[in-house]
Amino acid sequence: MTFGMVNPHMYYLNKVMSSLFVDTALPDDERSSFRSIRTITDFWKFMEGPLLEGLYWDSWYNNQQLYSVRNSSRIYYENILLGVPRVRQLRVRNNTCRIYSAFQPLIHDCYGKYTTENEDLSDFGLKKSKEWKYSSPPANAPWHWGFVGVYRDGGYIFTLSKSKSKAKTKLADLRLNSWITRGTRVVFIDFSLYNANINLFCIVRLVAEFPATGGLLTSWQFYSVKLLRYVTHYDYFIASCEIIFCVFLFVFITQELRKMNEFKSAYFKSVWNWLELLLLALCFLAVSFYAYCNMQNFLLLGRLLKNTESYPNFYFLAYWHIYYNNIIAITIFFAWIKIFKFISFNETMSQLSSTLSRCMKDIVGFAIMFFIIFSAYAQLGFLVFGSQVDDFSTFQNSIFAQFRIVLGDFNFAGIQQANWILGPIYFITFIFFVFFVLLNMFLAIINDTYSEVKADYSIGRRPDFELGKIIKKSYFNVLEKLRLKKAQDNEDKKIRKTPGDLTQQARKEGFNESEIHEAEQMRAWKERLEKKYYSTEIQDDYQPVTQQEFRELFLYAVELEKELHYISLKLNQMMRKLQ
């Protein structure tokens, strides 16, 4: 069911769109593209050049409001443009930042970074058409997370014409009248394509951010989604799998509720039960997302396709489909992790799981020490190299850069160039303490614990194989139902004797009261120790021994040694009499 919603053609469709709109060179500059533009002039060159060339074809296709996209050498008939593209910008007001008093006579304009409080909502420029007037965002529109800000919908919006010449004239008019000014903080270019050959929609968003520092940062999003889900026979097979999945989900939820009612608070003491609850919650969330996405498709898709004169906002549909895909991915990940619950039938796998569970406390203690040192180096790298090296430009980037250094991917030349004294010192000490010391300590903890587990397994201290026990229990249940075997509980009752019965039998056989008392004490010790250290109900075979328990074990061993010595003397006496 998870692979039914993923199409391998999604990657290739995104790659084609990326090469067409992101990597196509600007006019009169073969070295620049949307990926590398850094000025407003280059941005307008892209708008009037590669963007229009990619979106429009000079001829109509079957006299419909659908356009094929092309690059400099090939026309892509397969992808058709839905509706018309939309361009919108968000702005900030003047005097949204504080100027130091000494510079106030020199600086009269100040445009801060984008926030909802600093956003400009007033008309500007020519003020005669829609692109110069502010449009409020819809209530349910998703926000966009950019490089230097989080942007909401709405703003100053215009749509391109269905004619290439009119669209080019429109863009030239906006460029000449300074539609992009110092107050502009971001420009979004949104449009949607459809490929009927593979039944995929490609929702494209090109973003140009104008940070308060100056310059221009570009980013892009290509979402290939399958909005028309049930077209082929395979799609209907996937639909049947989805129905079966919902039935199983209902059955599993019922089973877990019964277990919770039966075991009460003991149910929550098992990690596997918590994992089961997490899986059920994720599955229920995935079903809810699926129902919501299909409902939105049904309500919006027909309406968006019907009106070809305006911009169809497929980004909203793609946004929720991407979230649904993420939920499915997390669910299937934990479903695979759940397999570890059933791999105890294999001794090697059981040893691995026992090793991890036994050394968990040591790993947690080591992790605290590791991240203290790791965070100290990350803060050092951010403060020393943050203004010079991109990998250390933020504290988060510093953390990721250090993980890359551990894996062997680093830019030593950039670090050394940023600070030729502290750079090498930082690099050498980080490699020594983190790579050579801490990582080897981590491996030593794992190796030492694994050796202990193998030693325990070699002397017989191993957990029962859970899957084998389940299969054996199911086999005996079937035999009992077929009346081929008597119930095990009845046989155990016949064999099992109470302590009182054993005491009476010992008196009949001539044992005195002191010997019977010592035997009962030893039996009580044996039962208590076996229950703690060799019980089949305990999943973790490692149990720490307290000082009191060690004393009891020592006394138990002494008593066993006395009994062994007593039995040896009795045996020697019997052998002499026989001789």
TrEMBL record:
<dbReference type="InterPro" id="IPR046791">
    <property type="entry name" value="Polycystin_dom"/>
</dbReference>
<feature type="transmembrane region" description="Helical">
    <location>
        <begin position="322"/>
        <end position="343"/>
    </location>
</feature>
<keyword id="KW-0325">Glycoprotein</keyword>
<dbReference type="Pfam" id="PF20519">
    <property type="entry name" value="Polycystin_dom"/>
</dbReference>
<feature type="transmembrane region" description="Helical">
    <location>
        <begin position="274"/>
        <end position="292"/>
    </location>
</feature>
<comment type="similarity">
    <text>Belongs to the polycystin family.</text>
</comment>
<keyword id="KW-1133">Transmembrane helix</keyword>
<dbReference type="Pfam" id="PF08016">
    <property type="entry name" value="PKD_channel"/>
</dbReference>
<dbReference type="InterPro" id="IPR003915">
    <property type="entry name" value="PKD_2"/>
</dbReference>
<feature type="domain" description="Polycystin cation channel PKD1/PKD2">
    <location>
        <begin position="229"/>
        <end position="453"/>
    </location>
</feature>
<dbReference type="InterPro" id="IPR013122">
    <property type="entry name" value="PKD1_2_channel"/>
</dbReference>
<protein>
    <submittedName>
        <fullName>Polycystic kidney disease 2-like 2 protein isoform X2</fullName>
    </submittedName>
</protein>
<feature type="domain" description="Polycystin">
    <location>
        <begin position="34"/>
        <end position="228"/>
    </location>
</feature>
<dbReference type="InterPro" id="IPR051223">
    <property type="entry name" value="Polycystin"/>
</dbReference>
<keyword id="KW-0812">Transmembrane</keyword>
<feature type="transmembrane region" description="Helical">
    <location>
        <begin position="234"/>
        <end position="253"/>
    </location>
</feature>
<feature type="transmembrane region" description="Helical">
    <location>
        <begin position="425"/>
        <end position="446"/>
    </location>
</feature>
<feature type="transmembrane region" description="Helical">
    <location>
        <begin position="363"/>
        <end position="385"/>
    </location>
</feature>
<keyword id="KW-0472">Membrane</keyword>
